[in-house]
Amino acid sequence: MPCYCEGAVPSLFSDERESPERVKRPWWRGAGFRNLLRGPAYATRRIAVRATFLVLLGLSSLFGVMCGLMLVYSIDLPQMEDLARYRPNTTTELLDIHGKEIGSFALERRVVLPYTEFPPVLRQALISIEDKSFERNWGVNLVRAVGAAWRDLHSHSRAQGSSTLTMQLARNLFLSNEKTYGRKIQEIFLAMQIERAYTKDQIFQLYGNQIYLGHGTYGFEAASLFYFSKHARDLTLTEAALLAALPKGAEYYSPIKYPERAMRRRNLVLTEMYSDRKITREQEETAQAAPLGLHIEAPPNSLAPYFVEEVRRQLEKEYGAEEVHGAGLKVYTTLDLDLQLVANKAILDGTAAYERRHGWKGHLQNVVLAGIDPQTYQHPDWGQSIEKGGYYHALVTEVSPARVMVKIGPVRAVLTPADWKWTQAAVSQTGGADAFLTTGDVVYVRLGGSAMDGVMHAELEQDSGVQASMMAVDNSDGEVLAMVGGRDFALSQFNRATQSQREVGSSFKPYVYTTAVEAGAKPTDMIVDGPVSFYTPNGPYTPHNYEGDYKGTMTLLNAFAESRNIPALKLADKAGIRKVIETAHRFGVTSEIPAFLPVAIGAADLTLYEQVQSYSVFPNDGIRIEPHYIRKVTQADGLPLDEPPAQVNEVISVETARTMMQFLQQVVKSGTGAAASQLKHPLGGKTGTTNDFTDAWFIGFSPSVTCGTWVGFDDRQSLGEKETGAKAALPMWMDFMRAAIAGKPNEAFPTGNAPKKELDVPLTPPDSPVVKKIPKAPAEVDPDAVEPDGDAGPKTEPGGPASGGTPPPPVSAPAS
Prior knowledge:
This protein is α+β, with helices and mostly antiparallel strands. The chain has 22 helices and 25 strands. The strands form eight sheets. It has a five-stranded mixed beta sheet.
């Protein structure tokens, strides 16, 4: 038996024996350690060691990979400081003078709520369907995440969701919706950071204000207002369950587009709430049997769309589009919503009355003949709220001699013979509706009340293309109280109150008479209304009155009230047409006016905005206040933003203004605007009509309000014989002013030596930077030039043509 001396230890990994020399070996080569690994009883230990080594190596590699991934995916992640500074895009609200909302601007329609404003039923519904462990997890639900990953791998897709509320919040705030594992890792990292930095209540508040819920709404308050026209705090169980169903897929489960899908998803939320013991079985069954209960909020911009658009342009010019649409500004406008609704109705009723006067024209669009499916057809009108008394385009779905069925979006309506009697449809023996209407026609109707079985009643109207506009300002401060820029904003956003330059007819004559009064003329001065020719470089110009007669010698007051053309031309010829144009520019007219004599009776293109601001000078004792739309703008935190003051200038003397008031009041008392005298109130104004009856105007005022109305076709076709300003425009003006003067029985115009009228705004200093330069008549204007549209004929009042034969191109007569 071999003998081993001290230190003679066999090799760990061979059977070789060491030399008998006495040597010092390391501990791991000792007999004890050798026997531990090599003894006969531990033959598998060698495999275990190697396996352990490989496992540790794999874990080390995995740890390194994870560290690398963490470095790669977290290097560009936002920090929690970014979330602390985060301010979501919020809605800019527009309010009228009574604090009522009239419109809004938003990149994301959102109303931010504090946590306490979210009702418990909504929180419970959302947690039950989206993240049952929300109160317990640390931002990530590992069980759901692993299960989802396993199913994704086996299905070769990434459709399986596993996000907690915190992960959804992280994705919505900072990440894209791209379905990749890299984005999911980033989502997890961000969720963990959010959980460390914020409480569960704060996380829920951020989520509840950030999540997209369809149709441009973000957050539960905005969605509640849109879908149910109520605040989130007032939601019922079924309403809360429907909103909680939408984060899964706001467009896919849209209750407007896909009500059946939305119903199934809502009922699933109710089932989950019952399984979580948030509601009873009876509550679940009752709620699941209930309808969706939508009450879609009417778009606020539809109440005064042309005014809102003007406000938007001004705000974007002053503060920038990003600030206006995303900073949650609160804009206090000058609009009086009550008067705006009156103006809307006045324009629609007035144009409808015009259409009926001229009979049925037909020429209807037919969607079937155009190859459009009637089941999917959507008219632009149908995007607004459908209400009783409104005018809408409707699709004919059924026609019989005595009955017509139409649809207006989701609303069905019926028409009976009395509703189309005015058309005088005698093209058949029965005179029934089938004589002039067919299925698929798009007709224009006025919606009445309910008929039966949920079907509304409607009256047939007509939309032949005639347009109208109206604008009203407060005389004391220049605030725009109401504005209508056309018959239907859904079809045409062109604002005919501010953008359309139209021939003004005799509504231009106040500038002529003001120039004469400043030169010393008086209302009692006499002038001859008789045949006359004005000599020009191109030959004689011989105008006529609209009536075709002459009244001989008459006072200036009567000549103005009756809108005689010859006296106005004589006054302009005496003063010089350039002097008259200069007067118009002083009043605030900025449009270029060609310097030729027929301008005196209306051969000039101006906007309704210019005319209204100019006419307000007269009741203001000679002070012109630039019309404006905004009173005040505040930021989301309530701090006000600077708003430039309106321009206020004295353009004529008090004496001149009060003399002109005599002329303008006489028009209403006994002249072309005499129909307005039935209002039994101090009023003044002037009618205007152009050649061939293409434009009809009435601009007038009370002591407190100035309002202007225009009627015409965009393509300048004739309104029809005898469609004067008094006939076509004045009735709309009267409908509006009847409401504007209500409650003001004691107001009166200043007269004689009464003290100068006090206004609510100070005069603008001459050297103020906000003063806008009013352009004078351009010196380079060719005195022989005709107006831009080539119509050299003079414009007249009250009906239009005032020339005998075809005059030579009119020119400016030299000043006397």
